[in-house]
Write a structure and sequence with these properties.
Layout (H helix, E strand, L loop, with lengths): L12 H14 L10 E2 L2 H9 L21 E2 L13 E7 L3 H4 L9 E3 L2 E5 L5 E5 L5 E5 L14 E6 L2 E8 L2 E6 L14 E3 L21 E3 L2 E4 L14 E5 L5 E5 L17 H4 L10 E3 L4 E5 L21 E6 L5 E6 L15 E7 L2 E9 L5 E5 L9 E5 L13 E5 L20 H11 L16 E3 L13 E3 L4 E7 L3 E3 L1 E5 L8 H13 L22 H10 E2 L2 E2 L7 H13 L16 E5 L3 E2 L14 E7 L4 E7 L4 H5 L14 E3 L3 E4 L6 E6 L5 E6 L9 E5 L2 E10 L6 E9 L5
Parallel strand pairs: 2-36
Antiparallel strand pairs: 1-7, 3-42, 4-5, 5-6, 6-7, 8-9, 9-10, 10-11, 12-13, 13-14, 14-15, 16-17, 17-18, 18-19, 20-21, 21-22, 23-24, 25-28, 26-27, 27-34, 28-33, 29-32, 30-31, 34-35, 36-37, 37-38, 38-39, 40-41, 41-42
């Protein structure tokens, strides 16, 4: 997360941390662009000779196809033999230790027998998809956004011109798919800076970052991107570029400009300074109808909107755009005036719904709140009733809350919604007591309760519900499969001065450098970000300074960014605090005030496990024609729960499912470092395979050399799990 320099918001440090980590890693490379490391063309041709003839039997598009179905027609592996799956090959992409944050979230492409992937440092590579042998490798030579992984790529071909287009930080790079060399005809010598053409100047730290890949339609590459989530962030325009040249062909302003549809839902000058409202999750394309479906995120600042009164179109909206021109065909706003960080988290799925004997082309969008919105693909008409739900509870002064929010009546939510004391964990008496004590003075209740100064329990939390891994659609069964997080988040807003020179005092320096992660209360999140309370009981003063200077684990060092005496002041500040002497005077600082987020905190119990009753993660099958849940099972295990002998409680999970014609659903996504196969009709767990690290990525299913493979990137690095950098492919034994 980030903020404009002039604002000096706490959130800016999240982006700065990422940049510093990546910069330190890549300072080891002196070249701006290393030449590709490749084997002979004969090896490449041999790999291609092993590929499947039919494109559908490979994985040539992010998430399987332009419709985001996350499905495969392969059936060689089925319920009868899935237990025989074994590791067919492993490929270590390297680089996990260079950044300290691994985050390989890549859904690999498999095209004509060649697998394309990226490493934790965004080194692009091509492998023989049947053996895992490297064919070429390309080092892009740009700073890695250590907090932002690349999730996929785009393959495009026109005759002999074959390209792989990959997002690397703020750029798109186009490579020759055969050789790994830059495709010089695209952009500036094979590179396209996404920070250009935004219509206003944006700080480099506030610009656009390529995470989820764009989508192809005819000769257009339609692109969104990740931006900051606080004041000063870049605008989230949706743009289409000529796939051959990189020239921009159309742009859709997600924060409308004067005279554009939706401008009356914003202050007059909002387009000049408001950021976010970006399509970071990816798209679904209906090529037959010439439509691209665009899910958008929240406007900035995530948790306070007093400076942007109105519904704020097209934030938190499913947009249907003309894929050729970018013109709006229809839209539906899922959250009005978002102050909960309820981005639409994944591409929608293009589906078909049976209604009164008719087959209706539809689009389904899962959400962070655990809802599934289903619309007619051509008109945008809802296919199930949607009711208006009240926003209850007090907001901070100056907030302009939208008092009603749309919630679908059917299908029923695939997570619990809203928080009450009945939902508090009863795993142990101590665990329950710790959560009750933490929540007793906070706001909570319905699905939509505004962020507050005392803290608001938001359930599901800011990470969903549904997440970026997306849902899988199976046309055979008419079921939509979605994995979800079922944990709560505490959102607390504090006032801090906009004029205060944060680096003029140790406390202020802590706010700028550390508060966005460890929280203004120093409590961390109990998992990935440790508490700094009582740090002097664990580390000496010099050791504390050294961690701040050099970094440790997921935390980057700040040496070279802040003078040594500034780092020493922060160390002195956190090291000298008594446990009960928490910061309390942010609002007392002189000058105008702004609201800042007091850190990202999960609602955890005394054992640092989720503070609500299980399941903490689920996998759900939804019948979209009937609008009913067919089955739901707990999904995942926390290592800490397993150590206590507890299984089947579920866990947070990141990365989506893939469904096959063999009756199976494959998904990794969990912190227990496993890939799982479920019966897609019943939800029964049929098989699990071990991974070298957490597989927080969506798998790909493909055929090569006559065998069906399931491959997943095992990057770990989330939920306190170790880093990794391997791609692991499973198949039935070769002698079958």
């Amino acid at each position: 997360m980030s903020a404009e320099r002039s604002q000096r918001s706490v959130d800016r440090i999240r982006e700065l941390c990422a940049s510093l980590a990546s910069g330190l890693a890549l300072l080891l490379s002196l070249s701006a662009c290393a030449p590709p490391d490749r084997v002979s063309s004969a090896a490449f041709d041999l790999a291609r000779s092993r590929g499947a003839e039919e494109p559908a039997r490979e994985w040539r598009t992010y998430l399987g196809d332009l419709a985001s179905s996350q499905s495969s027609p392969l059936d060689q592996v089925d319920a009868g033999n899935v237990s025989e799956l074994e590791v067919a090959w492993r490929y270590d992409a390297g680089g996990a230790s260079e950044t300290g944050v691994s985050q390989v979230q890549f859904n690999p492409l498999i095209v004509r027998g060649v697998l394309y992937g990226v490493s934790p440092t965004l080194r692009v590579f091509a492998l023989d998809a049947s053996t895992g042998a490297q064919l070429w490798s390309f080092e892009p030579g740009v700073p890695v956004e250590a907090w932002t992984a690349s999730r996929g790529a785009v393959y495009w071909a026109d005759g002999e011109d074959e390209r792989l287009i990959v997002g690397v930080g703020p750029e798109l790079i186009a490579l020759d798919a055969r050789t790994g060399e830059l495709a010089s005809a695209f952009g500036d010598g094979g590179r396209l800076d996404l920070g250009r053409g935004l219509g206003r100047d944006v700080d480099d730290m506030m610009g656009v970052v390529a995470t989820t890949p764009g989508s192809l339609f005819e000769d257009l590459l339609i692109v969104g991107g990740r931006v900051g989530e606080s004041r000063g962030a870049a605008p989230g325009h949706v743009r289409a570029f000529d796939v051959r040249t990189g020239e921009m062909r159309w742009i859709f302003h997600t924060v409308p400009r004067p005279g554009e549809f939706g401008a009356d839902t914003w202050p007059d000058d909002a387009w000049q300074h408001t950021g976010g409202v970006n399509a970071w999750a990816g798209f679904a394309v209906d090529a037959e109808r010439g439509l691209v479906f665009v899910p958008t995120g929240a406007p900035t600042f995530d948790f306070f909107g007093g400076d942007r009164p109105g519904d704020n179109l097209f934030a938190n909206t499913l947009l249907a755009l003309d894929a050729r021109t970018g013109e709006r065909r229809w839209h539906y706003q899922v959250v009005r005036h978002d102050i909960w960080d309820r981005d639409l988290p994944s591409p929608p799925n293009l589906v078909e719904v049976e209604r009164d004997g008719q087959t209706i082309p539809a689009v389904a969008q899962v959400t962070k709140t655990g809802d599934t919105f289903v619309f007619h693909r051509e008109t945008g008409a809802p296919l199930f009733p949607i009711e208006e739900q009240d926003v209850v509870g007090a907001a901070v002064p100056g907030e302009a809350v939208a008092r009603k929010q749309p919630v679908p009546v059917r299908p029923p939510p695939f997570t619990r919604q809203g928080f009450s004391l009945d939902l508090v964990t009863d795993r142990t008496e101590a665990a329950r007591a710790s959560v009750l004590e933490r929540a007793k003075d906070m706001q909570f209740g319905a699905l939509y309760v505004p962020p507050s100064g005392v803290g608001t329990v938001q359930y599901p939390g800011t990470d969903g519900g549904a997440e970026w891994g997306g849902a899988a659609w199976d046309a055979e069964t008419g079921l939509l499969y979605v994995n979800a997080n079922q944990i709560g988040t505490i959102v607390q807003l504090l006032e801090a001065s906009t004029d205060f020179d944060y680096f003029a005092s140790p406390q202020g320096a802590y706010v700028m450098l550390c508060g966005g992660c460890h929280g203004l209360d120093l409590a961390g999140d109990g998992s990935r970000v440790p508490s700094l309370r009582g740090v002097r009981d664990r580390l000496g003063l010099f050791d504390t300074y050294r961690v701040i200077r050099d970094g440790r684990g997921h935390m980057p060092g700040f040496d070279g960014f802040v003078p040594w005496y500034g780092l020493a002041a922060i160390a002195w500040y956190v090291h000298g605090l008594e446990d009960d002497a928490l910061p309390s005077n942010w609002a007392a600082l002189a000058g105008p005030k702004e609201y800042v987020n007091a850190g990202y905190h999960s609602l955890l119990d005394a054992d640092r496990l989720p503070g609500t009753k299980p399941p903490w993660g689920t996998l759900t099958a939804i019948d979209l024609s009937a609008g009913e849940i067919r089955w739901q099972v707990p999904f995942g295990n926390y290592p800490a729960a397993l150590e206590r002998g507890a299984t089947g409680l579920g866990s947070e999970n990141y990365g989506g499912p893939v469904v096959t014609a063999g009756g199976l659903l494959f998904i990794a996504a969990t912190p227990d470092a496993k890939i799982h196969a479920f019966d897609k009709v019943t939800g029964a767990l049929l098989w699990e395979g071990d991974l070298p690290a957490g597989g927080f990525a969506t798998p790909a299913v493909y055929e090569a050399n006559g065998r069906q493979f399931v491959v997943v990137a095992a990057g770990g690095g989330k939920l306190g799990t170790p880093n990794g950098s391997e791609y692991v492919a499973f198949a039935l034994p070769a002698e079958r």
